[in-house]
Amino acid sequence: MRLVLAAFVLIVSACAAGTGIDPDTDTTTTVAATSSTIAVDEATRLGAIDVAGQFFDAVLGRDGFTVASLGTDPPATVQADIDEWASAIGLAGGSFVVIRNLFTETTAEITVRLTLDLIEVGPWSYETTVSLVGGSPWTTIWSTTALYPSLEPGDVLRVDRSWMPRASVLAADGGPLAGAEAIKVIGVVPSRIDDLDGLKSELARLAGIDPAVVTEELGRPAVQPDWFIPVGNVKLVVYAAVGDELEALPGVLIRDGSDRLPFRDDFASHLVGSVGPITADQLGRLGFPYGPTDLIGQTGIEAAYESQLAGRPRTSIVRVNKFGRIIEDLFVIEGSAPQAVATTIDIEVQTAVEQALRDVAFPTAVVVIESATGQVRGIATRPLSDQFNRAVLGTYPPGSTFKVITATGLLENGFSTATEVECPSGVTLGGRSIRNAGDLDLGTINFTEAFAASCNTTFAPAAVDVLSAAMLEDVAAMYGFGTEPNLGVPSAASSFPRPADIAELATASIGQGRVLATPVHMASVAGAVAAGTWRPPTVISQATRPEGIELERSAVSSLGDMMLAVVTSGTGTNAAVNGVEVRGKTGSAEFGSGDDPETHAWFIGYWDDLAIAVLVEGGGGGGSVAAPIARRIISDLAG
Questions:
Q1: Do 316 and 304 touch, CB atoms closer than 8 A?
Q2: Residue 639: which residues within 8 A CB-CB, separation 6 or more?
Q3: What's the whole-model pTM score?
Q4: Between 3.10.450.100, 3.30.70.600, 3.20.20.10, 1.10.760.10, what CATH number should domain 2-153 receive?
Q5: HSE (CB half, 13 Å, CA atoms) of 633?
Q6: What are the pLDDT digits (tens) for 460-500?
């Protein structure tokens, strides 16, 4: 849409002509005398302004035919010149206002302020002039300076974005979990390629760049002929040997860059995440300043903290001469420096976790937290080929590990470690059959022994007799169930829906039914017993410690004794480590349907100042499968 001024009305801006500096958002309208070298009548002046308006309307509409029809002897390149200009800067639309007009006996110069809406950059305003001759009728004289005042024949404009090296993801000691390594970025400019097949062959020979990657990158949506299209990276030591040959290839440009360098291969990989080429959907969501050839965080912290780790690039519209040399910056949006993300990960703890999972065949998640703070010190998910971070996003029935919570409720309501209880092989509650693993029948035992042996037939009846659905829900809430996660990366909430009847209360009390928990949350449950306070787990360093929920001291003390018995004489003996007081709880959580459903293997526990949760999907018994993984980690760290 164009705007033609009425007589004597000018739009005045603080911007000097042709500087390319974004004008002030506030403009003022003033009345001034006609800016002319000679006096012209109003009809003559408005006639020239009208032709100039048609000209810039057509330019903004990329209508070379109309531009040519308005001109005197226009060259055949008008449409190509306009298309090249518009495509190079990503023109999506625009507007203009007339701000000056100068007349001689036979010519007129109409100056406008163009405001261009650019796909990548946003609004860009500058002054430019079209020359006219004749008088009645007026005709335009074509020149690329009408597109931009300093645009000479053979020049092109280009959007140039310079990203600073991506910031590091840091461990708790300040060392990098993922950092930057200086590299050379090999790119191609489509319009400068003489022989694409030959270029692919040479890039493969010199830099090991897959020809299919070159084809894919050049075929991405919105790629423009004069853009720098990254197709591969080479380390500096490689570039030193082949750089001269690469630079001599027609169509190749080489820039400084950086690559992600992990602390160690696959180290905390699910947490740290990955960096990869931006997709069309991501480009649409992120918008400026990203372009279709950028790399962005795809998973984990790299994705969750993309804007912090990447910063913002210095983005400029530049004028490039026919030799490919940048002559001047026309418009600049300054960038902002990337900022590191500091995590709570302890290198020693993380190393122990990674080593313990080297030979695990089942999908597995392990989380180790600092009990007093809830800070995650080690975390890993297997298999590595699966990008799903089951440690923080997977929700599972916690099985008998939930008995820590049920036991808390019972200890707060009359039970003690010595309370005599029954542990038959099976019971029926509200029409629901509850049985022990292996039909275990221990008869009359004390509460600690029932906990250590994981007697379902003790806990379910006790919960029904002593605790209401609301009471058990309140105890679960004390351990963070139903709380929105505050981990610092995308994570799922652990949930304890209030049981609707006796049957649901019985199954919920042993961690079945609708109860769901993440491994990281169950580590925080064990940490709460150790510290006496439940705190939301976090993996991103914070200046202050999150608020916690204090547990009843007598219940915590009793739970510690009961969890010690699990490891010394109960279902968790496979987690025992010589010389270390390990306290824990096993779980074998049924999932699926049928008379003999599969079970997830769980172990949660604590020792010294650390707490742990181990989940093995479909692994079977928690004591036989998950507890040994915990033992390997504890042994490594206590040794």
A1: no
A2: none
A3: 0.78
A4: 3.10.450.100
A5: 35
A6: 999 999 999 999 999 999 999 999 999 999 999 999 999 99
